[in-house]
Amino acid sequence: MADYQSLDGLDVFMSNLPTGLAEQGLKAQLDPFITERLGFTDWTCQKKRDKKYGLVTFLHRYQGERFLAIYGAETMHSLTSNGHPRSRARLAFLGVNVFCKLSDRPSDPFLLRTLRKTAHDRAHDDEHQQETTNDKTVVFKLDRLLCGHYEYPDGTLVFYKDIEWLAEGMENSAKFQRDALVITFATHGCQLRVEIPYRTIHEIVVYGRPPSLTLTLWEPPLFFQSSSQDLADRMSQLDLYGLKNMPRLRLEQLPHASANHADIIGQSLVYRMDVSPPDFESKVHRLKGKERLNISYYNLPVILYGRTSMFENLRTFRRLADRCYAESTVPFDVLFQLQALVNNGYLLPLTAEALLKRLCQTTKTNSTDALPNGSVGRDGKIADNKKSNGSDTHTRSSFPFSAAAVKKLFSLPFPGPDTEADAFSLDEIWSYLEEKEKEIRHGITKELISERGRQNLLMVYKMQVTPTRFCLLGPEPEAKNRILRKFPYHTEYFVRVQFCEEDGQDLFFNARVSLDKIWERFKDFLLQGVHIAGREYKFLGFSHSSLRAHSAWFMAPFVDHHSNMQTYFSVISDLGKFNMIFSPPRCAARIGQAFSETPFSIDLWKLGVQVEYIPDVKSRDGSRVFSDGVGTISRSLMEAIHDALPQTKGITTCFQIRWGGAKGMIALDDTLDGMVMRIRPESMVKFESEDKQYLEICDMGNKPIPLVLNRQIIKILEDMRVEENWFFQVQNRELKRLRMIAAYVHNTVAFLKRQNVAEKINFSKFIRRLHKLRIDYKRDAFLCSVVETVILREVRLLKHKARIPVDKGVTLFGIMDEFGFLEEDEVYITFEKKKLNQSRDFDLHDKLVLVTRSPALHPGDIQVRRAVVPPSYHPLRSLTNCIVFSQKGSRDLPSQLSGGDLDGDIYNIIWDDLAVSSSRREFLPADYPRVSPLNIGREVKREDMTNFFVEFMATDQLGVIAVKHMILADMKEAGTVDEECKLLAEMHSTGVDYSKSGHPIDTWKLRGLTPTRYRPDFLAQAPPANIVDRTEIVFETRKPAALEDEDEESGPKYRYYASNKILSKLYRAIDEKKIWKEEIHHKPSSRGPSVWEQLFGYIRYQCEMLGEVNWQPLIDEARRIRQAYDDEMYGASMDYSDNYTSEITELEIFTGYLFNKSGVQTRRQRDKSLGLKDEFDRISKNFERVIRMKTVELGEDNGVDDDDDEDDDDGSQAGLVSSSSGSDSDDPLKQDLSALELSIACLHIGTLKSKKFGRSSSEFQSFRIIAAQCVLSELEIALTKHQIAAGAAAVAASVK
């Protein structure tokens, strides 16, 4: 890159500019003068709205001087009244004279660097990106906006209006920009704005008489009220969360004089725009050029009012659902799905009402005998059927459809011109439900439910609360926690509620928008609860992690299986005593311990465990706690815990636990005899509790975690003067590995296994098997995309997040040396080297190592310590997969590393000689004072915790601080050592503790720091990439939006400069597009036989050797299995989508990775990806068992450990017992081939095109992969048995 220290830019000061003009508008006005007439492209401008002055910056000084020579103000000989020389403007636009002169301030060097980077990128753009007319804005003049829905009276599609807004005044428009439709209009004295992203538009129907555009949406638009003086005054009075004078107010609905838009906002998802006739056809023609819009022409009748009011239909349906629940005529889980179909906009309430009425008529259950479990009948007796999820046995036994069948209605298409009216007729829906119920009762999916139970999961209802509505989801798999474990038969009385944006993402802070009304809506929801099909669900609590994810638990009252009424108060009081905690955030955090995911629990009473309480280990002055959060257990108890967990290889010696009111780690102490657990009450017990029977396991150190660098660690290491060469060594090593993955099948197989891609069905082995058969997997588009997607994910993480693996490093749980063996500056690092894929043994004794913990922002968050190894006889040598810290010295090491402790924190260790030896600087650790939690001076109420929940959502600035720290650490010469960076590190620490302390960061301190208008290039967004045709990844090549197409109110637009610091150098060293194009992406050839044709040829040949393999009679059975598999995949595609209105792709399900076009997942996507991977493992393993006719031995785990040998058989000998293995025939050559025959039939069905699912017409292809792997496994077994039998027969014949 060029030398950015020698920049010669020039600034031009402009005055007398129109006040209504902002930066982008000024750029558009100057473009004809500078770009078109002078031919200069390397310039930019700055101007704030309501100011009469601005600045133009030229990258090249001579260009600025040329501009001034032509357009600079000319000095006159006369004087003004103030005695200053008069000047004459030589530039004018928008009817005003603009005065230009040389600025008396030097150009901002970082702004010049952004201009230089833009110029460099433009000159080296190898994609030949072109801006086409498709990207140009198309603007219609808006006359009125209608909100309604489609119906089919007499079989004809009709738009029914539910509410309308007449556009007043002249400045009303519908502007189709590059990525979104923005509607602005005035009505009833309000200036309103509606934003509709193109991704939410299913279809636009064009009609010319009168000119109109009718949009069918996946989700509600975003609504805003634009600024006015009156609005500004009202907002300054509101100022709920310190956000004054915002120009726009986010709304939960569009205001209307006589109707409440909020009542129907989730059901009326068809919006019609009546527009002015001039140039209508030509504008529509231009609109059709936008590839992401589906536009059709249809003579669409408009009925001003529906058969009945949508408002009334909703009320009628909800009243009927309530009555059905109260009278026990319909099971709750069915009612939940019906209300979800209505709430989420899949069924009109009128249709759902008719369906519910028919269900009630069909049900033959006597209402007096059919009370939901836990309900109180009119005779005062409690119904207690004691069935899972509180379901009513009597009602369910005679009810025609299960909730699972009703949930299948989420695959209903959108109503519209291309959808037949029959799709929504009651008879058609009823027939569809009958068909689905028959499939469900066939029993194939029952094994999946059992598999979830084996993995300690429960099916839980979920809900999304957005700025406009609430949507019902699930039930979805959820890891057990203490609450759910207490009430295993009543989990349907609990619901997990997510507060989020319309698309399922977090609500992001935008300085130009006030979210006050949205926070008020969320607060009301938390306080008032929600009514669902006869039940009232209200706030219960939240864990620390769910608070950061903006989710909470709600519950409805119920009578448990002990005939006790359970309410919020009884559930919370049963957990422990919280009445002496006077801090709402701390009280919520303590209650939240019961909501922490604890997949496994051990009955301590049954084991006869003796619990001992021991004191904490502290410094001499008592100010430091060395044992903060860690206790010990005996070997006998450790082994008992190990026996109670799913089978894993090796021994786990440390566990993260919850027990009563205690939390933290427990580690093996081999000097303890018997069944003993030692707890440190001062640091581990957070509240008093009598609930001590079960020890709950949150996590465990069952394997070492590979160490991966991140941007924060890299920056501190750079400031410690670690050799630049070392960073490139570790990055290039990983980059070389990624480049070679697709080149050689052996590398591909090893990579897939290491990444755990579909390893429950041994996908990596399937690729290897194909290779041995000389079948190239790259000839199949889906197989190719699976491999390429995972490689691209790793390349993008490497480039855009600096997630660089370090071979000579590891991440481990931290515990304390209980025996005082380690000296003050010593640590003991122990882990299973085989599980870390270490190719050779090494000795860490007496070696200096780098120790840190994420997030690391302060320069002292990385420390150098000496690793030692105790003698072989020492009890510390019994530990594994942990780092042991010393209990000696004036301060414990964990607290020096980003304020860590030992209650479950993990620590990063690097022993690479070059990295350690070249770190010439080491900084003192931070030592922030402890902050007392917020104290309200009284017992905490539920309302206090809900208020804090919303306040946290509104004011949490942790992400903003982290990004600002990265920017300033790059801009400042001293890096993280700079005082402003140290202040940000302290503010980040405050932000981390905010969820427990209740003290938010001081935003005034944040505002007082150096502005960060410009960002280093390593923070730039990745080139957008999309999954096309649901299987192939394609990079976008469109140019960034032109300035005139951008919306000035859409949020900040960042400029990036090329930094000369290490993060930017590493970033620029990876050309992801080039790597993708030349070394990863492969276009499958359509010439010659396909992968599946070649595979079938091999199978037929081998079957001839076995004799008669008759698979054709099993085609119908295989088709049913395929249908059930596709149903499960469609369910997963909906359940794990960020946005419930649009399903994820099969490619994402198969790889267990939610794809993000920007290259980097959001926090929620990362969390969901973990659950998605587990869910596909369950689905695929279950169907492998069904296809291979296998049963599962009790207690079997079937997990694939990292150290499994890749040549192990995939299930034929590992706990899977074939129901078809063996034969009673006297002929040794005869064997039962039914599992092989069913596998072949399934493969045949799998190669056929699947039926389409859902509103985006999903088709699934992965069934063929599972079936093919089953065929190859069964074929291998059959051929082996055949050879053995043939050999035995030959021996017998020779003996005769």
Concise structural overview:
35% of the residues lie in helices and 20% in strands.
Write up this protein.
The protein is globular and about 120 Å long. 35% of the residues lie in helices and 20% in strands. The N terminus is likely disordered. The chain has 39 helices and 48 strands. It has 1296 residues and is an alpha+beta fold. The strands form ten sheets. Strands 8, 9, 10, 11, 12, 13, 14, 15, 16, 17, 18, 19 and 23 form a 13-stranded mixed β-sheet that branches. Strands 29-35-32-33-31-34-30 form a seven-stranded mixed β-sheet.
List keywords for this structure.
1296 residues, alpha+beta, 13-stranded mixed beta sheet, 48 strands
Give the integer mean of the pLDDT values: 86
Q: What ranges have pLDDT less than 50 throughout 5 or more consecutive residues?
A: 1-6, 229-245, 366-391, 1042-1046, 1192-1225
User: What does the overall shape look like?
Assistant: globular
If helices are DSSP runs of H or I spanning 4 or more residues, what is the number of helices?
39
According to DSSP, the number of beta strands is 48
Report the β-strand fraction as a percent range.
15-25%
Estimated structural class: alpha+beta
Helix content: 25-40%
Radius of gyration: 33 Å
Largest sheet: 13 strands, mixed
- N- to C-terminal separation? 86 Å
